[in-house]
Each structure stands twice: as structure tokens, then as C-alpha cells.
Design a protein that fits this description.
four-stranded antiparallel beta sheet, 235 residues, single chain
């Protein structure tokens, strides 16, 4: 199958005064359409920097990122923002829900930000909410929900516009083990049910096994890859 994400010789160097700190050192890999790939590594391995570069949120020092055939580096800031809105759904460790809005309004705000024509697809919103088990929480504000429920709302926000790619950065970092397992299963199932490509960043080797493939990072480099990590036993 064709690659939907292609990273080629990515480097990222941060300057702290006169000191240069390399965060990425020549990282290259690809993700096929419909694949679920986990990137795992300890703190300081460069995985979060890689996440922000792949999402077009920060530029690399050198190298290229091609998303669905389009080179991010050849786009203006406005074009890159528009492409993110159309192609990518983000899930972060912090739920990033607006506290004054209901769960439903937090979900559909992604539709508004993306500038989609017409109203929200209510049938798809219902399907996503049912799928994630939050249909009975749509009128609740974040403070009235558990951490696991808030992360499901954040996942629904990422799914509602049917983006081609879901980028998840430590999506279970603020959750207990039970809620973590539930969110990981839902990410896995959303990959299968909706056919979306998922790339998940995690420090947790057990969480990483939910992917079809696990890429291990250390010191800004890819050190190994693991195919078919037996995620099926989680389901």
C-alpha cells in the first residue's frame, strides 16, 4: 500500500545559547495508509519532537515530511495549517477540552475550526459517540466527567471530521490503567472501524503493542523496529 506518512532524514537541533542540542538525528521511516504505528522511547529520545514535526506544528532543521503525497516543507504556513485541519486529527496527553463547553460542543468545535461547509454530520457524530461510549455524556462539561471520559471526548473530537491520520501523543499519560486500556482499545478499533491511519507516541512499551508496528527511539534516532507485536491479545 502507498505511504501516507513519509519522513526522510529528519534532524532537529535546538539552540540553548551557544550550545546546540540535537533532538533528532537523521530519522527516516514511512507509515502505510490504514496502518497503526507506535513510536516508543524514554524521555529525551526525540519522539515528541518527531510528533510535532510530523503534525506540521514545528519545522525540522533539515529533512522532509510528506503527508499523503504533499511535502510539508513546500507549503506556506497558511497552507500547512489548512492541510492539518483537513488531514490530521490530534489527540494529546492533556485533554485540551474547553471547560465552559459541553462534551458535544467540545467535539464539534473541530468541525468549526476545520471550516467544513454545512452543519455537523449528526449521524456520524452519533456513531462516533456511541462507538466511544459517551452518548450519555454529551451534555456534560469536562469537570463533570472522569479522565477516561474526557479523553474519549478528545478522541471523538479527533475522529468527527474523518481525518486520514490520527496523531496521538501520550494519549494515556494522565489516565489510570483501566482507562488507559479502554482508550488504547478504542484507538485500535477506530483504526479498524474507520480506516484511519494512527501514529501514536508513547513511553510505555506495553501501550506500544497496540500498534501493527513498533518503532523504538533513543537519543534522537530509530534503534529498532518490531513488526506484529501481538496486539490482538488486548482485544
Amino acid at each position: 500500500m502507498p505511504a501516507i506518512i513519509q519522513a526522510d532524514k529528519l534532524t532537529k537541533i535546538y539552540k540553548l545559547g551557544k550550545v546546540e542540542v540535537p533532538a533528532l538525528q537523521g530519522v527516516s521511516f514511512s507509515v502505510e495508509k490504514g496502518e497503526f504505528v507506535s513510536i516508543v522511547g524514554p524521555s529525551g529520545s526525540g519522539k515528541s519532537t518527531l510528533f510535532y514535526i510530523l503534525g506540521g506544528l514545528t519545522p525540522p532543521t533539515s529533512g522532509s515530511v510528506i503527508i499523503d503525497g504533499v511535502d510539508f516543507g513546500q507549503l506556506s504556513d497558511g497552507q500547512r495549517t489548512a492541510m492539518r485541519k483537513q488531514k490530521i486529527g490530534f489527540v494529546f496527553q492533556k485533554f485540551n477540552l474547553l471547560p465552559t463547553l459541553s462534551a458535544r460542543d467540545n467535539i464539534i468545535i473541530a468541525h468549526d475550526i476545520a471550516g467544513k461547509n454545512g452543519g455537523i454530520d449528526e449521524a456520524h457524530l452519533k456513531r462516533v459517540a456511541d462507538f466511544l461510549g459517551i452518548s450519555d455524556r454529551l451534555d456534560h462539561r469536562p469537570a463533570e466527567m472522569s479522565g477516561g471520559q474526557q479523553q474519549r471526548v478528545a478522541l471523538a473530537r479527533a475522529l468527527v471530521n474523518r481525518p486520514s491520520i490520527i496523531l496521538a501523543d501520550e494519549p494515556t499519560g494522565n489516565l489510570d490503567s483501566k482507562s488507559s486500556d479502554q482508550v488504547l482499545k478504542m484507538l485500535r478499533q477506530s483504526n479498524q472501524e474507520f480506516g484511519q491511519t494512527v501514529l501514536m507516541i508513547t513511553h510505555n512499551p506495553a501501550a506500544a503493542t497496540y500498534g501493527d508496528r513498533v518503532i523504538h527511539m533513543r537519543d534522537g534516532e530509530i534503534v529498532s523496529e518490531e513488526q506484529d507485536p501481538q496486539w490482538s491479545h488486548h482485544l
